[in-house]
Amino acid sequence: MNHPYPKILEDLMELLRSLPGVGRRSAERMAMSLFSWDAEKLEALARLLAELKKRVGTCSVCGNLADTAEGTPLCPICASPVRDASFLCIVENTPQIRSIEASGSFRGVYHVLGGRLAPLEGKGIESISLDALEKRLESGIFREVILALSPDVEGQATAVFLAGRLARFSLRISRLAQGLPAGSDLSYADPATIAAALSGRTSFDREEK
Ligand SMILES: [Zn+2]
Fold first, then answer.
1. Rounded to the nearest whole angstrom, what is the distance from the C-alpha of residue 168 to the centroid of ligand 1?
2. 44 is in which domain, residue-wise?
3. Sequential DSSP letters for 163-181
4. Same domain, yes or no: 39 and 91
């Protein structure tokens, strides 16, 4: 670069570039936009960033994001008395909970795996929260487990693995109906599509390969 910005702006742009979808030009625009903010607004942003990891944690029950302000983190879904705690929906990550909640068609509770199986990337069963899931199921309060994994190769391979692994529990294991675009990430599916996939869910065929 022929005419670099002052170092602090260059450093800021470099950090912004690590955000998804932000290239050099976008980072430059964002940094200059931030520079145009007044000091008060910039300080408010700085405070939020500094507090982010302290104030947001994972729910001690399901792994969803939760406010850590009041002791043991419990997400609003696990804390709610009106959710049907006998239906457990298994998702890969927390954005998927937001998508399913936006569909308004699920009243049970969730379990966040925190990833999925991807043997080629070295992600085996230790990379998902399987132990915590099995502990929850051992409580015997669940009637049905819905495997809401993304309709791509790794998501479906993870669903097949879980269906086999959880077969020892006496509960219905189901998965979302076909209809979600193949290869897509559930986090970005539209609410109507998710609602249809949930209401049309089918029992998992454990023999399926
Ligand atoms: Zn929770």
1. 24
2. 7-54
3. HHHGGGSSSEEEEPPBTBP
4. no
Same structural domain, 146 and 87: yes
Say how many Å lie between the CA of residue 17 and the centre of ligand 1. 32
Centre of ligand 1 from the C-alpha of residue 73, in Å: 8
- Ligand 1 centre and the CA of 29: distance in Å? 38
Q: Is residue 159 part of a domain?
A: yes
139 band by pLDDT with thresholds 50, 70 and 90: very high
- pTM of the entire predicted model: 0.81
- Helix, strand or coil for residue 87? strand
Structural domains counted in the chain: 2
What mean pLDDT is predicted for residues 62-67? 94
Instruction: Write out the E strands in 113-199.
Output: 144-147, 172-175
Strands (E), 18-79: 56-58, 65-67
59, part of any domain:
no
The pLDDT value recorded for residue 183 is 62
* Mean pLDDT score, 141-167: 91
Taking a 5 Å cut-off on Cβ, the residues next to ion ligand 1 are: 59, 61-62, 64, 75, 78
Domain assignment of residue 110, yes or no: yes
Q: Across residues 64-91, what is the average pLDDT?
A: 92
Whether residue 15 is contained in a domain is answered as yes
Q: Is residue 149 a contact partner of residue 159, using CB atoms and an 8 Å limit?
A: yes
Task: Give pLDDT, residue 91.
Answer: 95
